[in-house]
Amino acid sequence: MATHLSSCSSSSISFTPSSFKNKTTHFTKFITLLGEGHSARWVSRIRPRNQFQLKSSNGHPLNALSIHGDGNSIGQEQSEPHGKEGSFPVSDLKNVDSKLSITVVGASGDLAKKKIFPALFALYYEDCLPEDFIVFGFARTKMTDEELRNMISRTLTCRIDKRANCEDKMDHFLKRCFYHSGLYSSEENFAELDIKLKEKEAGRKSNRLFYLSIPPNIFVDVVRCASLRASSENGWTRVIVEKPFGRDSESSAELTRCLKQYLAEDQIFRIDHYLGKELVENLSVLRFSNLVFEPVWSRNYIKNVQLIFSEDFGTEGRGGHLNVCPMHASRYFDKYGIIRDIMQNHLLQILALFAMETPVSLDAEDIRNEKVKVLRSMRPLQLEDVVVGQYKGHSKGGKSFPAYIDDPTVPNDSLTPTFAAAALFIDNARWDGVPFLMKAGKALHTKLAEIRVQFRHVPGNLYKRNFGTDIDKATNELVLRVQPDEAIFLKINNKVPGLGMRLDRSDLNLLYSARYPREIPDAYERLLLDAIEGERRLFIRSDELDAAWSLFTPLLNELEQRKIVPELYPYGSRGPVGPHYLAAKHNVRWGDLGDEEL
Questions:
Q1: Does the active-site annotation cover 26?
Q2: Smallest Cα–Cα separation from 481: which of 434, 443, 442, 520?
Q3: In the β-sheet with 448-455, what is the strand arrangement from edge to edge?
Q4: pLDDT the model gives residue 409
Q5: Which of 40, 252, 536, 583 would suit a FRET pair with 215, their CA atoms being 20 to 30 Å apart?
Q6: How far apart are CA 136 and CA 172, in angstroms?
Q7: How does pLDDT run across 114-125, given as a tens digit for each residue?
């Protein structure tokens, strides 16, 4: 059952994590400024170009690179001695000279072309990257620098505010992009990449970020080769790893063990792009900075929480996996299924953020500590609290839609679920007895991702007779629509104007497109910038991953060992009937029924 991973011992050289950090003395963590009227200062930021407006995910400005060689977060300011005067911008110090090198491994793939390169350009367009940076593409495809630039230029857009200098910005960005062809398992090819990087870095301090936009079976090979042959010798080195992080507890633990032969934990940035979504980012702000919500964020007032994800295409639409070859997309999905693909990572991470206790601070470790506590408090998933489905062929409006097993790369007898619903419970004082319902599926009637919080009935409601027999319609509900058309709704009861006493359920709404007309940055922009900054709050720590897999692995094993047959549902429908019985079992009504008007 375990994912086939590259051997951790594929290299004959024993390599420790520290060797992938720095091979020379760390850059000094403070600079003493001498001169008349100037006192010694602690300095921890480089301020390239402008004072940018964007903030990192923990609230710090997004305009700096760490000058630490040990991978410390740049978001943490050093303490200042009391009684000292204002500091001097480090950019004014001539002896601070570093270069950021970003290497996109798998540069010829769809994820790189459609997401990573456009995100990097958007950051450059907004002056959020340092003055001195380069971008290298690395893949097996034979290509020149100019061919790479032509390839990625087709996906670059000036989508933010369409300033007049867009074309100039694009040209300047493309001139910073280079390419090197090589095998992912070849140390020699990565040594050649290192030579090219050093030529561009020209003896300056180098900070290197590797983005692994490749299938998981070659993660370890790439990390081994990069660590031995292409890591920074005098700055930091960080690696962004795309999901899937294994397919069960065993394979995930093995992948982590292999990566940690070459990387320290704080160098591994396990990316879940849903954590970079604007509404997910806003979840903790909404809760912890508004007095109206924090006191009611518990079992005393919340009846249930729903996390809903749906896509209006099947695996023939690549299943959302851009780092997988198109001809292998369905084959990939058949090996993983919707539970591993969506529920175990995207939805569970959102659940942990939603349910965590107030962290000590906004520092990454404090937040991730609270998320781990939530995951470890969760009740083991039972088969009777799970429904699985698979879409079948369907004709609508003269158009035919294929069944999942119609795909030639999928076995005819495949039992892989393309839909799943589950009821989860957190056994702690805050959430005891509150059902957290998840629902995720492909080939459904709409594309949607949202969090719905249904509150309890008002005790002794004076107006209950005005609501008729369906008292559930009188409960308040908070809706956070993650995509599309980002919005926050609070459903309330109010009186319809007129002489009679007629009640209506209305929405207090925040439509992002109306309130914030400027286009929302893509999640990859936020996460790439956080990785450059060394901010880890939105990335998954290894113990988080272990806790998440511990929750789902027994269920997945049982589904596969017992060969549970998924309930069929038509392509383009709302999904199977089973989830409605599951919700009714826990006295819950799915909140997304009949809400297309929102």
A1: no
A2: 520
A3: 503-511, 487-495, 477-483, 448-455, 302-310, 436-441, 419-424, 386-392, 567-570
A4: 86
A5: 536
A6: 15
A7: 999 999 998 998
> Are residues 570 and 403 in contact, defined by beta-carbon separation less than 8 angstroms?
no
Given a cut of 80, is residue 336 above it in pLDDT? Answer: yes
Query: Has residue 146 got a pLDDT over 70?
Result: yes
Q: Identify the bridge partners of residue 508 per DSSP, sorted by sequence position.
A: 490
Q: What is the DSSP string of 382-404?
A: -GGGEEEEEEE-EEETTEEE--G
Task: Report the DSSP beta bridge partners of residue 400.
Answer: 395
Q: What is the DSSP string of 147-163?
A: HHHHHHHTT---TTT--
Cα atoms in the 13 Å half-sphere on the side-chain side of 459: 2
Neighbours of 457 (CB within 10 A): 14
Task: Look up tokens 């971008």; give the residue.
Answer: 135
- Is residue 314 a contact partner of residue 391, using CB atoms and an 8 Å limit? yes
- What DSSP character marks residue 18? G
Q: Which of 255, 209, 207, 268 is nearest to 232 (CA)?
A: 207
Q: Which amino acid is at 518?
A: R
Using one digit for the tens of pLDDT, what is the confidence trace for 208-245? Answer: 999 999 988 899 999 999 999 999 988 999 999 988 89
Kindly state the tokens that stand for 115: 């997401």
Name the residue among 448, 90, 124, 71 with its Cα closest to residue 236.
71
Residue 303 pLDDT exceeds 50: yes
Express as a percent the part of the chain with pLDDT over 70. Answer: 77
Q: Strand 477-483 relative to strand 487-495: parallel, antiparallel, unpaired?
A: antiparallel
Q: What share of the chain has pLDDT > 90, as a percent?
A: 50
pLDDT at 340: 92
pLDDT of residue 554: 95
With 0-12 / 13-18 / 19 or more C-beta atoms within 10 angstroms meaning exposed / middle / buried, residue 396 is: exposed
Q: Give every CB contact of residue 474 below 8 A, 6+ residues apart in sequence.
A: 457, 458, 461, 463, 464, 467, 493, 503, 505
Catalytic residue (one of 346, 394, 445, 580)? 346
Q: How many CB atoms lie within 10 A of CB 132?
A: 18
Task: Judge whether residue 546 has pLDDT over 90.
Answer: yes
Distance CA 212, CA 451 (A): 30
Residue where the block lists tokens 């990625």: 152
Tokens for 404?
Answer: 């999942």
- On average, the pLDDT of the chain sits at 80
- Cis peptide leading into residue 521 (ω within 30°): no
Cα–Cα distance measured from residue 90 to residue 33, given in angstroms and rounded to the nearest whole number? 11
Q: Pick from 438, 445, 440, 443: which is nearest to 405 by CA? A: 443
Burial of 85 (0-12, 13-18, 19+ CB in 10 A): exposed
